[in-house]
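Re: beginner question about structure tokens

> Can someone show what the tokenized structure looks like for a real chain? I only ever see the sequence side.

Sure, here's an example I had lying around. Input first:
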Amino acid sequence: MIAILADVHGNYPALRAVLTDLERRGCDRIVSLGDVAGYYCLVNECIDALRDRQVPHLMGNHDHYLVAGTRCPRSRSANACLDYQRAAVTPERMRFLAAAPLTLQWGELSMVHGGWRNPLDEYLTAPDAAYFAGLPGRFFFSGHTHVQVLTPVGEKWYCNPGSVGQPRDGDPRAGYAVFADGAVELVRVAYDVDEIAVAMRRAGFAEPFFRNLYTGTRIGGGVSRIGRGIPS
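And the corresponding structure tokens:
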């Protein structure tokens, strides 16, 4: 049984709740589809939780910004959080992020952070059979949109497990997916949003950086849905 996570984004209370839930379910393998970094202040705790469990981790766009010392081209709030994390993340933890590959193939399971044309920064807003035609695998997993999706694409399946740390689909619970016996299950887990809100305040961030976590929306408000534009 494999647990598939994405877009933790430094939200350790959400990650901790997900790890507790997947352990209760008996998941014996975990994969992270990227973006451990970005948005929230407990990135060291998130890195340690994945590293200590030897979780395979793909490179996300926010991980890349942090490792490469570059900036997000779309979001001032994301850059403010990245600046904080650059000062907070230790060299050893930075090496963990830097070692992440862009893609992962486990048998019939194909995984990226964004999409298969651009693993780092492609938003799959309208997955269909034509997109996946010719790609090896039967089950395709990606994150990046922060919207939980499971849909057939011809004779194959596409899944976005949703975001652990910053859901944007109107459900504030942390999202992840479980793959077992040739089938995918979408899971949501409630967590203590107040805990990360308090941590953000202590780190010097104002309420607009985290109040969206209470409603499962983007920073600044708004729900993202597959089939519509999804900003970073």
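Each token stands for a local structural state, so reading them left to right follows the chain. Helices lie at 12-25, 43-52, 61-68, 76-88, 91-98, 129-132, 193-202.
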